[in-house]
Amino acid sequence: MPSSLSSEETISVAERPVTVLPGVGPAIAARLARLDLRVLLDLVFHLPSRYEDRTTIRPLRGLQAGTSALVGGEIVAAHVSLGRRPTLALTLTDATGWLTLRFFRFTQAQRRRLAAGTRLSAFGEVRYGPSGLEMAHPEYRLSSEGELREDALTPVYPTTDGLPVKTLRRLIRAALALVLPGLQDDILPPTPHLPPLSLTEALGLLHAPPPSGPPPEARRRLAFEELVTHHAHLLGLRRSVQAARAPVCDTPSALWKDLLATLPFRPTNAQARAISEIRRDLARDEPMQRLLQGDVGSGKTLVAAAAALAVIEAG
Fold first, then answer.
1. Residue pLDDT, tens place only, 54-110
2. Is 140 exposed, middle or buried (0-12, 13-18, 19+ CB in 10 A)?
3. Following DSSP, what letter does each residue of 195-229 receive, concatenated?
4. How far apart are CA 52 and CA 155, in angstroms?
5. CA-CA distance, 48 to 213, in Å (whole number)?
6. Burial of 193 (0-12, 13-18, 19+ CB in 10 A)
7. pTM for the predicted model, two decimal places
C-alpha cells in the first residue's frame, strides 16, 4: 500500500532542508551551504561567536568609543549635509547627554521618519566623529514601534559574504522554534560527568543567554555531547573495520630470521615486543589496527621491515 505521506513528512523536522524556512530561496541556501548549514539541525548547532548586550539602555554621558551599546532618547536636530555624498546626521539626547547618529545611505522616507521630536532606541558601535561621539548606521526602532531592548543577550554568529548576521539570527531563531520541541534529550544516560542540563536547555541558553552570559554548564553539556558522539562514531568505524576480513599472514618467520642473522645488533626488548604483537595481529583474519610510535632512532623502520617480511612470506 503506498504511503500517503510526502517525502518531506517522512523525515524528521531537524533533517529538513533550510529551504523550508520563510525567505530561504536558492540564493540564501547557497550562502548557508558555504557555512555547512544545509538542514535545520545545522542551524541549531551553529553557535554564536560572541554576544551583544541589548538588555539595558545606556546613558549617553557614559558611552565610550570602541564599544557597542543600546541607547535611547529624542532626536532634537536632523541635518543633511549636501556634499559629494549626502549624509544624514541626527542629534539624539537623553537626560545625561547627546550623541550623533550618522547615515551615509538613507531615503527620503527615512529622513521624514527621523525628524526632530521623534523618540527612538538605537544600537551600534560608538566611535569618534567630527563633532564628538557618534554611531554610524545603527539599528534603530521608533518608540511608537517598541524598543530594541531584549530580555537576553543578542547572539552574533559566524557568517559569510551576502548573509547579514541579522538574517542568520532570524533563521536560527526560526529553526530553534521548530527543532527544539522535538529534540531528543535522553540519548545520554545520567552520569556524574554530565552537567545538570538537558541538551535542549543548553542550546537555548547558548543561543539566548541571560544578561550575565551563558552559564559554563551549557558549553560543557554540548562539549560532553560532542565528545561522546565522536567517540561513538569512532567505535562504529572500528566495528565496521573489524567486520571486514583480512588475509591471514601466519608464517614460520623464515625471512625475518634471515634478516636477523645479517644484523650487527639484536633488536631491543621494545622492538621485539612490537614485532611479536604485530605478527600476532597479522595472523588473524581481522584487519590490523595498530599505531607504531617511537622517537627518532628508536627502530621503527626495523619493526616495519619485520611486518613487511611476514606479509611477503605469506605471499
1. 999 999 999 999 999 999 999 999 999 887 788 999 999 999 999 999 999 999 999
2. buried
3. -SS-HHHHHHHHHS--TT---HHHHHHHHHHHHHH
4. 6
5. 12
6. exposed
7. 0.68
